[in-house]
Write a structure and sequence with these properties.
693 residues, Beta-galactosidase, Chain A, domain 5, TIM Barrel, Immunoglobulin-like, 3 domains, 8-stranded parallel barrel, glycosidase, Alpga-gal_N_sf, Alpha-glycosidase_related, Alpha-galactosidase, EC 3.2.1.22
């Protein structure tokens, strides 16, 4: 519900779990009032306080309380919006124009007091999530937009604040960190043109006393897949804000007369149920409002990459497909090496024509065989990249990001195509559309294996627009492919987890979480991933021993049980698996199909986080079933295992374990826990199913 009080010029946005309020000052500036536990409109009125008076000449007492901080006047807080007008003026002065409320959506309109720049602040309530974004429109001389964040979030006063976020790199994404909010500005960002492996565009804040199950948590997440920036600011007196949006330092947006700039959604969640409550709010939001076809169950897939690498041919893929079908796999995905002169990563990228030496009659016969075996057919593509050794690059060297008189840096022997160019985007859509249409493609694994460099666009009057234009073109191509091919499903990949965010999840059905498939490492990666993103989109594979990243060997059961906590995939060379391993794989895939509705659509409870040793456990709860995954990372000193207390159950209900036949009272499982029988030694694992009686 959204209400406006004309006399106090106060807007109040309410759900059953939180209230959010903002107000216009006497100078027409939008000032934040409240974000926290649910209050009535009358109660919010008691929170409103007049602007504080100056008490010295150096600190504006209202700093850090603006709904969207701008440059100008005596503001010295981190700005969310910075503009430079044609005459060089940088300060912005608010003038309120109008507002409109449409159900759960609010738009508040402003203009600059002198210049013909219009600013709209947008709010939309979706479930327990508040979406925010900004629209800018110019009716006059060109305006440079130096920074255009989607929102600034003002936190209430607490004795202290702690920050949760993730860090990482290739093969080590989503490593969770929790630390005190530093005084001054702390910036989390990607300047790579993609979301990045190294950080992810979300933060959580608490007063330092929250746990997985208890305490107030404020969380924000940006729906954008290009370069981004989130800044936390803390004053000496403890005031804390979070501002974030697309872009990076040094990159400007140019608004010509008649131009409009719309920022991506920067959404917020408040929970009184700890980090787990915030996570489940994000998961529900993503399933209900972000993911396409979120009601579907994601199929068990097989991917050929680790079995074949670039040694791809029709006979070999047919053999793998037959083995995969016999295991119960539902989606067969052929990875790199099927096109052009792509026999290694040295050449051929960009030449998206079928290699006739490897597939004499094209891809259709293989796709037909995969479909005959009862599986869907998927294909790996990397549309945004080109090898210099390719026919495409020789024909269009100007299509890549580059600067005049500067070398073109290669990573993985690749250059980045400029999708902000209309001709490049049209070319990419054309071959992708034909590929899907002519070959019965059900699934695309869309990869993006290197960040931007030399991000120039010679001869374009506004070359910086490539930073946003590239990502927007990727979105547009995916949207158009999905509209034209309703049965097509897409997985986002960027050298593993380099492009995971709410923006790409709005256009894809799942994401490749990491190239690191080591099950022990995956426990930590999946722990960080699920802080915001749901298991329904978390692709996880079972691969061979030893793992190609770490060299570690783990039991096949441990590898399966870790992967079954997300969207199960198989990535090993199954042609060489023993009969015992194949039989076990069939059993586990059948078990996964039994429990996956609970895993993919149930409420996630992180019972015990991964650590250097001991038990790690996660639980998924649906109305009639619960599934618990337990993992021993390493064994020490013959210590007895502790019981695992479950969550999210009905204390008045009873639950039956179909494996053992045992019946448990919900109240006992919640208060006292359950004993889980794990195999002895390192890397023991077990799955417990409990069905409500």
């Amino acid at each position: 519900m959204i209400a406006f009080d004309e006399q106090s010029r106060l807007w109040v946005l309410q759900t059953t779990t939180w209230t959010y309020a903002l107000q216009l000052t006497e100078e027409d500036a939008p000032r934040h009032v409240y974000w926290g536990p649910a209050l009535t409109a009358e109660q919010v009125a008691g929170v409103v306080r007049p602007s504080a008076a100056w008490w010295d000449g150096f600190n504006d007492p209202n700093e850090g309380r603006e709904e969207l901080a701008v440059d100008g006047g005596t503001r010295y807080w981190t700005p969310s919006l910075q503009v430079r007008f044609a005459d060089g003026t940088r300060a912005l002065e608010w003038a309120y124009t109008d507002h409109e409320i449409d159900g759960g959506a609010l738009r508040i309109g402003f203009r600059d007091r002198h210049y013909p720049l219009r600013i709209d602040l947008h709010y939309r309530v979706r479930g327990d999530v508040l979406e925010r974004w900004v629209g800018l429109a110019n009716d006059g001389e060109p305006v440079e937009v130096l920074r255009a964040d989607s929102a600034a979030w003002v936190l209430p006063e607490r004795a202290d604040y702690r920050l949760s976020h993730v860090v990482g790199r290739w093969a080590a994404e989503s490593q969770l960190r929790r630390e005190s909010v530093a005084e001054g500005e702390t910036v989390f960002a990607s300047r790579r043109g993609i979301t990045s492996h190294h950080a992810n565009p979300w933060v959580m804040l608490d007063a330092g006393d929250a746990s997985e199950t208890h305490g107030e948590v404020w969380s924000t997440a940006l729906a954008w897949s290009g370069s981004w920036r989130i800044t936390t600011t803390r004053s000496i007196d403890g005031r804390v804000t979070v501002t974030g949006g697309f872009g990076q330092d040094g990159v400007t947006h140019r608004l010509n007369r008649g131009s409009v700039l719309t920022t991506p959604v920067f959404a917020g969640v408040f929970s009184e149920n700890g980090f787990g409550g915030a996570s489940r709010a994000w998961h529900d939001y993503t399933l209900e409002h972000v993911l396409p076809h979120s009601d579907e169950l994601r199929p068990v897939l097989y991917n050929s990459w680790e079995a074949t690498a670039f040694d791809v041919n029709e006979a070999g893929q047919r053999k793998l497909a037959a083995h995969a079908a016999s295991l119960g796999v539902e989606l067969f995905v052929m990875d790199d090496g099927w096109f052009g002169s792509r026999t290694s990563d040295n050449a051929g990228l960009g030449d998206w024509v079928v290699n006739r030496d490897r597939f004499p009659d094209g891809l259709a016969p293989l796709a037909d065989e995969v479909h005959r075996l009862g599986m869907k057919f998927g294909l790996w593509v990397e549309p945004e990249m080109v090898n210099p050794d390719s026919d495409l690059y020789r024909a269009h060297p100007d299509w890549v990001l580059h600067h005049p008189h500067r070398r073109r840096s290669e990573l993985r022997r690749q250059l980045v195509l400029n999708f902000a160019r209309e001709d490049v985007a049209a070319w990419a859509h054309g071959w992708l559309d034909a590929l899907v249409r002519d070959n019965g493609i059900d699934f695309l694994k869309w990869d993006m294996n290197r960040p931007f460099s030399e991000a120039g666009w010679p001869d374009d009057e506004d070359p910086d627009r490539l930073w946003t234009g590239h990502t927007q073109a990727v979105y547009a191509i995916m949207d158009r492919l999905r509209a034209d091919h309703p049965g097509l499903r897409i997985e986002s990949c960027s050298g593993g987890g380099g492009r995971i965010d709410l923006g790409i999840l709005a256009r894809t059905d799942q994401v490749w979480t990491s190239d690191n498939t080591d099950a022990l490492d995956r426990l930590r990666i999946q722990h960080g991933y699920t802080q915001v993103y749901p298991a329904r989109a978390m692709s996880a594979w079972v691969t061979d021993n030893p793992n190609f990243v770490t060299g570690r060997s783990t039991p096949l059961a441990f590898r399966f049980h870790v992967a079954m906590a997300g969207v199960l995939g198989i990535g090993g060379n199954i042609v060489e698996w023993s009969e015992d391993d194949l039989a076990f794989a069939r059993e586990q895939i059948a078990l996964y199909k039994e429990i996956r509705e609970t895993v993919q659509h149930g409420a996630l409870h992180r019972l015990q986080p991964p650590s250097a040793s001991g038990i790690s456990a996660v639980q998924y709860v649906s109305p009639e079933r619960t599934v618990v995954f337990a993992y021993r990372q390493s064994a020490h000193f013959n210590l007895p295992e502790r019981r695992v207390r479950l969550r999210g159950l009905d204390p008045a209900a009873r639950y039956r374990d179909p494996g053992s036949g045992a019946v448990h009272h919900g109240a006992v499982l919640l208060a006292h826990g359950i004993e889980i029988d794990l195999p002895k030694g390192d890397h023991g694992s077990a799955i417990v199913r409990l069905y409500r009686i």
